[in-house]
Amino acid sequence: MINIKHVFFDLDHTLWDFEKNSDLTFEKVFKKQQINTDLNAFLEVYRPINLEYWRLFRDEKVSKKELRYGRLKKAFDSINYTISDDLIDTIAIEYIEYLSDFNHLFEGTFEILDYLKDKYQLHIITNGFEEVQYKKMKSSKLLPYFDAIITSESVGVKKPNPKVFHHALKVANANQENSIMIGDSLEADIFGAINIGMPAIYCNFNNDVKTSDSYTSITSLLELKQYL
């Protein structure tokens, strides 16, 4: 990878520990709103439902508003907890408001960014909501490391749409040959990059996906030192 000059990272599940921070946010919101149910039982059903809704959102099958309401409604229904639509809307708003209060990053995040920052230009490409992603990065002290931050909302489409990657390259004054994408989603990050001719490194942190010859796979961020 001697020609690489630009390193593009995904944010959630790649640098920013979404699951841990999300769980803590729900704990705060549930306590504030006096939601009388077992939090762990809720989270157990919410996590896959959230992933399902994000896939629908990525595929333009639900709106941002439908995602924020629908994932909560389906999760509460799954645990047979009766809750009003008004309270669901309140929880949805407070969840987004408080999410950036928690700043857990994956192990090795600052070490690898410090290692990379003097060798490459670092950028973010994220499908997350624009107003939330900047707050996350600021509160977790990630902002200073990155030159360009590209959100899908600013492009109008979401990864793996090629428009997102082409827009990101243009903003960063980069090209496919001197750039690499690092992320946790095979479909959105890895195949999205590969489909436009950009190499990619897959963050297989749970070590639950078989490796492939079409991309490099790592199980921890510090493994990037072997390649970059």
CATH H-level homologous superfamily name of the largest domain: HAD superfamily/HAD-like
| CATH structural fold name of the largest domain | Rossmann fold
The radius of gyration computed from the alpha-carbon positions, rounded to a whole number of angstroms, is: 18 Å
Q: Mean of residue pLDDT?
A: 96
Q: The biggest beta sheet, please?
A: 6 strands, parallel
List the uncertain runs. Answer: none
**Order of adjacent strands in the largest pleated sheet:** 3-2-1-4-5-6
Strand percentage, roughly?
5-15%
CATH class of the largest domain equals Alpha Beta
Order of helices and strands: EHHHHHEHEHHEHEE
Shape: elongated
Which CATH architecture of the largest domain would you pick? 3-Layer(aba) Sandwich
Helix content: 40-55%
* Total number of domains: 2
Q: What is the terminal-to-terminal distance? A: 7 Å
Task: Quickly count the helices.
Answer: 9
Total beta-strand segments: 6
State the secondary-structure class: alpha/beta
